[in-house]
Design goal:
By secondary structure, the protein is an all-alpha fold. It has two domains: 1-53, Homeodomain-like (Arc Repressor Mutant, subunit A, Orthogonal Bundle); 57-198, Tetracycline Repressor, domain 2 (Orthogonal Bundle). It is 76% helix and 0% strand. The chain has eight helices and no strands. It has helices at residues 2-28, 35-42, 46-50, 56-77, 89-115, 117-143, 152-169, 174-190. It is elongated and about 60 Å long. The N and C termini lie far apart (52 Å).
Length: 198
Amino acid sequence: MAATSRAQQAEQTRIELENAARAVFARTGYLNTKIVDITREAGRSAGSFYNHYSGKDELLLALAEQIGEDADIIVATQDPSARDHPTMRPHLEVFWQLLTRHRVVVDALRDAARVSPEFAERLQRFTQVQFEPWVERLHAFEKSGVELPAPPGVTAMLIGGAAENFARQWHGSSEDGLDALVAFVDSGVFGRPAQRDR
C-alpha cells in the first residue's frame, strides 16, 4: 500500500512539474526558464525535479514524447475511411490539433535546438518520425498516378512548412482554418481541393 502511494505521489509530482514547465515556458520562453522557476511554479523542491529529470532538456523531451502520444490518440479517433480519399485532410487534422494544443512545447523545442547542436539533431530525428506517415501517404498517391509537385519527402516538408506558418497566423475559427489549409494543400497536391462531407 505504501509503495503504491509513493508511486502515485511521484507520478503526481511529475505531472505538476510538467504542467509548471508549460506555464513558465509560455510566460518567459524556454531559454529564459530556470529549473528553479519550474519548481517554484509547481510548489516543489529542486530535489523533486531531479528525481524525475536530469535537467531542463530531459523534461522538454518528455513533453515532446507526449505530442507523439497525443497524435496516436487523435489518429485512433479518426474515421478510417477518410484515409481512402485523395486528400491530405487526415494528416493535416492531426497536425492542426497538435500545434494548437502543444504550441508552447513546439516553440520550446525550437528554442532548445537553436542553442544545442545535440538537441537540434534529436529534434530533426523526432520531426522526421512525425512526418513519416505523410511521406508514406504521398508515396501511395504517387504510385496511384498522382503527379506530385516534388518527390514525396520534399512535398511533405513543403506542406508542413506552409501548414505551420498558416496555423500560426490564423485567427478565425479552428474549423474554418483547417478547411482553408486542406483546400490549399489538396489544390497543390491533386490539382483541386477535396470535397468535404458535411
